[in-house]
Structure formats: structure tokens, C-alpha cells
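README, section 4: Worked example with a bound small molecule

Sections 1 through 3 covered apo chains. Here we extend the same pipeline to holo records, where the ligand is supplied as SMILES alongside the sequence. The molecule in this example is zinc ion. Nothing else about the input changes; the structure line simply encodes the ligand pose together with the chain.
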Amino acid sequence: MTTDPQAPAALRPPTRPGGNWSWILLACPHCGEQHIHGAPRGAQDNGGHRIAHCRDRDRPTGYYVVPATQPTPEDAA
Ligand SMILES: [Zn+2]
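The generated complex, written as C-alpha cells:
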């Protein structure tokens, strides 16, 4: 069994009242695209393993969401 890679992501607060926190992957380690995952523990969420959101569903795999040390492009918005 292989070990899934780490996927640096930025933790995002809710964009609307009552909304959910989310993780914005900078770049998927599998397909290079940006994926979004829920952060059920909000500001205290520390990531963890997720099933990959790649469009290529023929590759069921995953990664470990880890807090990113660099800003995402969205930080400039
Ligand atoms: Zn992907």
C-alpha cells in the first residue's frame, strides 16, 4: 500500500453567515488542479486525509491536507 502525498492548502473562513470553513488546495499533488475540501472543525481544523477530488475518477486516490506556508492566489483578491 502506498502512502498518499501531502497537499498544502489554505484554510478559509466561511464566505457567508452560517457557512462552512474550507480548505483550498493550492495544487493537487495528483492532477495539479485546485480542489476544495470541508474543514469541519473550522479554525481549529488541522486537515488530514481526504479522498482526492480529481476529475479523473479512474484514479481513486487521496492526499493529506496540510496547512500551506505560502499564500494562495486568492489572497491577492
Ligand atoms: Zn486532483
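What to look for in the output: The first strand starts at residue 6 and ends at 12. Residues 39 and 45 are 6 Å apart (CA to CA).

Section 5 describes how to batch many such records.
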